[in-house]
Design a protein that fits this description.
Blueprint (H helix, E strand, L loop, with lengths): L4 H6 L8 E6 L2 E5 L5 E9 L2 E9 L5 H16 L22 H12 L5 H19 L9 H12 L4 H20 L33 H9 L5 H13 L3 H5 L6 E2 L4 E4 L11 E4 L2 H13 L21 H8 L10 H12 L4 H7 L7 H6 L5 H35 L1
Antiparallel strand pairs: 1-2, 2-3, 3-4, 5-6, 6-7
Helix pairs in contact: 3-6, 4-5, 4-6, 5-6, 7-15, 8-10
Keywords: DNA integration, DNA recombination, DNA-binding
Family: Belongs to the 'phage' integrase family.
GO molecular function, one term: DNA binding
Amino acid sequence: MALTDLKVRNARPMAEKNFKLSDGHGLYLLVTQCGGKLWRWKYRFDGKEKLMSFGAYPLVSLSAAREAHIEARRTLAKGADPMAGRKAQKEVVPEVVNPFRQVAELWFEKWRTDKDVKYVENTETRLNNDVLSAIGSRPIDEIQAPELVEMILAIESRGASDVARRAHQTTSQIFRFGIAHGLCKQNPAQMFKPGDVLKKIKVVNFARVEKSELPSLFKKIEYYDGSPVTRLAMKLMALVFLRTSELIGGEWSEINFKEARWDIPKQRMKGGARPHIIPLSNQAISVLETLWNYRKNDQWIFPGDHDAKKHMSSNTILKALERMGYKGEMTGHGFRGIASTLLHENGFDPEHIEMQLAHAPENDVAAAYNFAKYLKPRRTMMQWWADYLDRLLQEAELASRSLTVEAAVN
């Protein structure tokens, strides 16, 4: 059967091999393991089997591939080799003037695959409002670096420095996509860095307590008199030092009790670059087993208090810390800074720490493939960390008992 636009668009790669979708008369779509969709035509000339390329979908649509295929068959019917006079395997690109918007749309359709829906929507909104509104109608090969500088400075002028930097990053990705598909010849976004033209951003660290205050903090968490699920959320936050959104959005399907690990899909991680693995310490397993007894459904590890169909609010942990007397002194994110500082101080490998903090490397390809690196030493590190927190709690308990005994004697 001949292909349809819907069938071509919905074709998904197979992990184990490439596969073909036939359109008839030797024309087929090659779907690669990496997700590429390539138009190919197998034919015979002068007794030899040959293979001709008509480009990559969606840059070359089904109808465009068929038109190129028909023209090539006419050449063959005249007794000439369709590939004569052109470089072997050179892809046919539609003869169109490429405005930046057209290339951006093609990039976006490829980029959005497997991304979180909300993340995709936010990126699309920023792309339309901040980038395409400024340079969308310009031919992509005519855009120069000064135009991009003007674009991101305009974004910064409204107090959105971070958005300006994201716009630069997204624009650079679109140019790289265009170069890879023969739609442009240069990437003007790579000719300068945002820091060359934007104001320096003052780094604001998330509030966190000093090392000397940790025993008292963990004792207050242990005896927190609010919701038991909130108390357990704070305990688990300290043990695994995830970002708050990554913790509260946890689902039971991600927990592997048998192998003592928490596998978070990349769609839930900041930036969506890679999945994340948390080796679970004995203490973390104990907290999760207790949480299982409090579950309201089989989806959320931390269901909402008022609506179990949703997960816990992002402010729940912060409000609990404020109730315990840490307003302006400690946040959920602060546990990450504490863990990073103390693990470094105690001689753990910086790369192992960075991997466990899910700090993505600069190289997106490395981010995609390295998420499972150093699992064995990271497991040792996470168990040491859990034992260390237990020792801090014991210190607080002993100090409290000493004060009680001293008060009784006096």
